[in-house]
Amino acid sequence: MAIIIDPQVSGIAGNMLIGAFVDLGADANKLKEVMEKSAECFGKVEVTFKKINKKGISSTYCHVEMLEHKHSICYPKFIEKIKKLDLDKKVKETSIKVFERIAIAESKIHGKTLDTVHFHEVGASDAVADVIGSIYAYYSLNLDNQKIIGLPIAVGGGRVETAHGIIPVPAPAVVEVLKNAKMIGGPVDSELATPTGAAVYMEICDEIKEFIPLIKAKKTGYGAGKKDFDHPNILRIIESSDIAESDKIDVIETNMDHLTGEEIGYLFDKLLDIGARDVSVTPIIMKKNRPGNLLKVISRKENREKVIEAIFKETGSLGIRIAPNMHRGISKREFSKQIFNINDKDYEVTFKIGYLNGEIISKRPEYEDLKKIAQDSGLPLKKISEMIR
């Protein structure tokens, strides 16, 4: 499944994200409790949710009203207070990452260190409620287990008055937070993207695309913004099922002509242990008609350096070829367990099931499970494979 965050028309703000998450099924009553309680040590807020219509589109509006104003606070003390909140560990850690993005942007703009930068609008109690509310809703919907795709952000235009005076739109903090993301000015003379909304977007998005990829939309949530324009002031989030998922991988290769079979087997297992997605070894003829082997490893970007280091150390290779960020088409897959009775004993077997457009295209038992049954029962592996289908 993929989740599409669509801020192409009216930008993004924390309360718009929360409204869209509630529209998708997040518990508004629980969110109200979490947001008000979390913001309390920075200033009391009151959170309300209501269904409203924005230019013909029914959406959920999350309103966070500040009931108490406190002085700005330096970043280290701010984070200390966040760490003491009674929240799930994942919610707290991800919220801190969002605030760190905002703090880094503020420190760069003002020429200060993280230890000395003060939060103004960004650190106010309503922003705390927005960030923690967004992240709490994100986890409550189990979206951390889904691929999150962001579309380009409309940032608005014109000027806006802040604690630092009149500044251009998009605000400098928004520009810093959205570095390497796609954004577009307009379509109105107003601020559409806030630092809070932009920071949450950058933290939870796995990928940012120009257009919606090939999907089947299942459910849509709309979060309303406060202002009224000639167009619907809403943020759209689409929950979808992928027709064909796409995966970015690195393909890493090197030639080997001096390793023994045992050493190749050891390297094979080690690469899988450190995170390689797949490993293959193919016999080849090298220069001067020397027999050798081609080692090919498929790896995710985050494991690339570990894989390369292991290949250098274990093979002594002087050169490794890397094809980064290659696209790999993959079917949707899931795992299912079944019980089989063999020789009056029950065995659990895990099946890997592949889907395309909701139809099963493959269903295979895991080799390690078949191997254990063969060893335990004394039956040939081939016989076990025939019995378990």
From TrEMBL:
Keywords: Lyase, Nickel
Gene Ontology MF terms: lyase activity; nickel cation binding
PANTHER family linked to this entry: NICKEL INSERTION PROTEIN-RELATED, PYRIDINIUM-3,5-BISTHIOCARBOXYLIC ACID MONONUCLEOTIDE NICKEL INSERTION PROTEIN
Pfam families: Ni_insertion
InterPro entries membership: Ni_insertion
Name of the protein in its database record: Putative nickel insertion protein
Highest rank taxon of the organism: Archaea
